[in-house]
Amino acid sequence: MQPFLVTMSNDPDDESGTSILVETRPKTQRPPLYKVLLLNDDYTPMEFVVHVLERFFGMTHAQAFEVMLTVHKKGVAVVGVFSHEIAETKVGQVMDFARRHQHPLQCTMEKEE
Ligand code: TYC
Fold it and tell me: What pTM did the predictor assign?
């Protein structure tokens, strides 16, 4: 909605004096959200990926297995949508965990829309 003009006069044609613009909608916008993506590779064991999805994304074993299979078949899947800070943390946790276990698993983030 358009901001509207408020003047000190009751006459709508009175262009004298001071007026203010009244905002009809707050200017604040929602912070952008980020998709966290898990990428397929040929070497990371399926059980390891399932464990990652349970551990860092709060999925049940059944959910984690289903998402892991989607990544395995399609090459990539969105495993969660978060604020920038949380998405960065999740990506870091997955990448650290995979590296510590010497698996090439890749996790990235991408701005939504
Ligand atoms: N493609 C892997 C395999 O056959 C399994 C896998 C699934 C790896 C998902 C990564 O993000 C991944 N062992």
Answer: 0.80
